[in-house]
Specification:
The chain has 4 helices and 7 strands; from the N terminus they run βααβββαβαββ. It is of the alpha+beta class.
């Protein structure tokens, strides 16, 4: 059984972060190109560590396999306190680990007193990212719209499928 922990990012996570931020496949649907230089990842990580959201609603995913040291394998959270984003290192894909992480993240978010004013979470997903869309829908996110050419990044112009998850017990129209 995998052992995952969601925790605040630390500058000591740099090498693990760079492994997935420099991977073309992992970054295929991310909003920036793969990192070609450790300094890019260092800046991203420093910004995450310094963010007021770090450890509150934005986390690294730490995996501790049997008889091995913990390793950061991805990230999950509301990078701006409202919009969800997540990624997982390629060696950890299709093992149910992001489902496990999300199963811990969402109840913790809704139960966190500091996030009590958060009524909904939104997601901006590249429409071809079927795995991401499937995961979000598994947890109750629903489609709310589609937008053409929302941003330009390494693969060219990207479109957006917008999804939303409302806080349990706060249905809106």
């Amino acid at each position: 059984m995998p052992h995952l922990k969601l925790r605040a990012a630390s500058t000591t996570d740099l090498q693990d972060f760079h492994a997935f931020f420099s991977d073309n496949d992992v970054m295929r649907y991310w909003s920036t190109a793969p990192h070609t230089d450790l300094a890019q990842t260092k800046k991203y990580l420093r910004d995450m560590v310094d963010s007021k959201w770090n450890g509150l609603c934005d986390f690294v995913i730490e995996h501790t396999p049997p008889s091995a040291a913990p390793k950061v394998i991805g990230k999950l959270g509301l990078w701006d306190g409202h919009e969800i984003g997540f990624m997982l290192g390629r060696p950890f894909w299709v093992k149910g680990l992001m489902t496990e992480a999300m199963s811990s993240f969402l109840p913790g978010l809704w139960d966190n007193e500091e996030m009590k004013d958060t009524k909904e979470i939104v997601a901006d997903v590249y429409p071809r990212n079927a795995a991401c869309i499937g995961l979000l829908k598994k947890f109750g996110f629903r489609e709310t719209g589609y937008r053409d050419k929302t941003y330009e990044t390494h693969p060219g112009w990207c479109h957006s499928l917008d999804l939303k998850l409302e806080r349990p017990g706060t249905a809106t129209k």
